[in-house]
């Protein structure tokens, strides 16, 4: 799990962002969200697929990028 502030290039404290839950859904398809992107107008939630798909365009305007996609691999090992 990582949170990166794209404006400053600094890594934010993980505790500053609450962990995404099963109730958090992707704004594109409704699947479970593993990525939270903060922009000027609020925040966007994405599944791993749509987060990766939109990352290049959003990185130019994102204030922060909170990525919990590593949890997908942890759940497979359990």
Describe what you observe in this structure.
This protein is an alpha+beta fold and 78 residues long. The protein has one domain. The chain is built from 2 helices and 4 strands, in the order E-E-E-H-E-H. The chain has a 4-stranded antiparallel beta sheet. Strand 2 and strand 3 form a beta hairpin.
User: Termini, distance in Å?
Assistant: 17 Å
- List SSEs in N-to-C order: EEEHEH
What would the average pLDDT be, to the nearest integer? 83
In the sheet with the most strands, the strands line up as 1-4-2-3
What's the SSE blueprint?
Blueprint: E1 2-4, E2 35-39, E3 42-46, H1 48-58, E4 64-67, H2 70-77
Antiparallel strand pairs: 1-4, 2-3, 2-4
Kindly list the characteristics that best describe this protein:
alpha+beta; 2 helices; 4 strands; 24% helix; globular
Give a short overview:
The chain is of the alpha+beta class.
């Amino acid at each position: 799990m990582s949170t990166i502030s794209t404006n400053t290039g600094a890594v934010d404290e993980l505790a500053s962002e609450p962990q995404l839950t099963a109730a958090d859904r992707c704004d594109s398809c409704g699947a479970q969200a593993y990525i939270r992107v903060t922009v000027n107008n609020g925040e966007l939630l994405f599944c791993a697929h749509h987060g990766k798909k939109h990352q290049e365009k959003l990185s130019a305007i994102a204030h922060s990028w909170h990525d919990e996609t590593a949890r997908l691999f942890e759940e497979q090992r359990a």
